[in-house]
Amino acid sequence: MKLFKAFLIVFTWLLSNSLLAQNTKVYSRDKEQIYPEYIQVDRNILVENYFQFMDSLVTVYDSITSYTLTEHLLVRNNPWIIDTLQNTDYYRMKARDSFVYNQKKMIVIPKGNRIRLPDSHSADSLNNVFNHTQIDINIPEFKLRIFHDAVKMYEFPIRVGRNEKKFLEMSGREEDLRTKTGTGSIVGYNKDPRYANPANNHDYTVTRRDDKKITLVPQIPFIETELNGIRYGQMIHPTTNPETLGKAYSNGCIGTKEADAWVIYYYAPVNAKVTIRYDLRVLNENGDIVILKDIYGYQ
């Protein structure tokens, strides 16, 4: 039986074509086992096959680790991956005098890089962080914050839904485009999202950037939320036009910068808590109360 398991592990490594590694002794779920501490990448990984590659690693190593391995655990244990993904942002590349027409062809994990596999202590620590992470969105403030307990980890500018009602072909009825409030959680992702105009339900594969240049749409996960037990189809996703951030501009979804969307994705696994609120009284950096504009006319 032990020989069969060893053969199965080696065969799966070879099949994945990505697992030349340095070995170290750890504990598997049922007995002491040898498996790589590092995974050495033997080819360039592009955005377009990044998720398939990560899924293959999770499939291979989840069978031999002492904990349940996930993509979020693997990436959070290697924060440089998030940094690299953030740098596929069109506007970051533009600031470096580089025009990117097709983000999917960008290299996100270069050949020769090593990915560290979490040990059981690191996995437990990260899972504890996930369990105490909350996404907080204040609509009239146009801000999304990520908290670990009461400690703010990140703050990002966003755009929110417009203050109007409109017939959307995608849903087949008139919709209130204002972003919905409530408490709930992250319930899923779309890692290769369909880009469509909700008004006419037409797909589009290219986008006009703020600098008026045309590019293909990027591949960045859309994050699905559930509020008060209801799935409104209200996603957290990147916008290719950051000039719209700080505005009531969308069809109800929460829009972010491309770079910020990667951080939110990896800091908000499924079941992470989400609060979307409409608070006009907020504190500024000096601790003074500020009254925000009532963009939806609620008060």
TrEMBL record:
Keyword terms of this UniProt record: Cell shape, Cell wall biogenesis/degradation, Peptidoglycan synthesis, Signal, Transferase
L,D-TPase catalytic domain residues: 133-277
Cytoplasm in keyword set: no
TM segment ranges: none
Protein's pathway: Cell wall biogenesis; peptidoglycan biosynthesis
Active site feature: H237, C253
Pfam families: YkuD
Cleaved signal peptide residues: 1-21
InterPro entries per the UniProt record, alphabetical: LD-transpeptidase (IPR050979), LD_TPept_cat_dom (IPR005490), Transpep_catalytic_dom (IPR038063)
Family membership noted in the UniProt record: Belongs to the YkuD family.
Name assigned to this protein: L,D-transpeptidase
